[in-house]
C-alpha cells in the first residue's frame, strides 16, 4: 500500500498557503477600515509540534494530522494600520511557497507513477 503521509503533509501545507492567501487578501481589502484587526495564519506552531512527534520516531496517523490544521488568527492590535507594502511582500512570498509545494506534490505523484509503470513491465 502506498504511504499517503507525504500527500497528507503536503495537503496541510497547501491548506495553510491557501488560507494565508485569504488572510492577506482580507488584510488588503480592509486596509482603510477603522478598527480593523489584521489576521494571519497559525500553522508554524503546528509544524513545530509535528516535528517534535517525528523526532521521537512516532509516525503520525492520517487521523492525527487533523490536529495540525492551519487556522486564521488575529495579529497585532485592533486598529493598528495595515502596511500594504508588507502585505504585498507576504503575498509574493506566499505565492512562491504555494508554487514550491505544488511542484513537490507533482514530483511525488510522478515518482508514484514511475513506480507503477515500471512495475507493469
**Number of separate domains:** 1
What spatial form do the alpha-carbon principal axes imply? elongated
Radius of gyration using CA atoms only: 18 Å
Strand content: 5-15%
Structural class: mainly alpha
N-to-C order of helices and strands: HEHEH
Count of helical regions: 3
Cα end-to-end separation: 19 Å
Please, what is the average pLDDT? 86
Unreliable stretches (pLDDT < 50, length at least 5) are none
Give the biggest beta sheet: 2 strands, antiparallel
What percent of the residues sit in helical stretches (DSSP H or I)? 55-70%
**Strand sequence of the main sheet, in spatial order?**
1-2
Q: Let me know the number of strands.
A: 2
Write a structural description:
The chain has helices at residues 5-29, 44-55, 84-119, and strands at 39-42, 71-74. The chain is mainly alpha-helical. The chain has one domain. A two-stranded antiparallel ribbon has the order 1-2. The longest helix has 36 residues, at 84-119. It starts with a helix and ends with a helix. The model has no long low-confidence stretch (mean pLDDT 86).
Describe the structure concisely.
The protein is mainly alpha-helical and 121 residues long.
Write the SSE topology.
Layout: H1 5-29, E1 39-42, H2 44-55, E2 71-74, H3 84-119
Antiparallel strand pairs: 1-2
Helix pairs in contact: 1-3
Keywords:
mainly alpha; two-stranded antiparallel sheet; 60% helix; 121 residues; 2 strands; 3 helices; single chain
Amino acid at each position: 500500500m502506498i504511504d499517503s503521509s507525504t500527500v497528507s503533509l503536503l495537503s496541510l501545507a497547501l491548506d495553510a498557503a491557501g488560507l494565508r492567501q485569504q488572510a492577506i487578501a482580507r488584510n488588503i481589502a480592509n486596509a482603510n477600515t477603522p478598527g480593523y484587526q489584521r489576521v494571519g495564519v497559525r500553522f508554524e506552531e503546528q509544524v513545530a509540534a509535528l516535528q517534535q512527534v517525528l523526532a521521537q520516531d512516532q509516525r503520525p496517523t492520517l487521523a492525527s494530522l487533523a490536529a495540525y490544521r492551519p487556522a486564521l488568527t488575529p495579529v497585532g492590535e485592533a486598529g493598528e494600520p495595515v502596511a500594504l507594502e508588507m502585505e504585498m511582500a507576504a503575498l509574493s512570498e506566499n505565492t512562491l511557497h504555494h508554487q514550491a509545494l505544488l511542484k513537490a506534490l507533482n514530483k511525488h505523484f510522478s515518482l508514484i507513477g514511475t513506480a507503477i509503470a515500471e512495475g507493469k513491465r
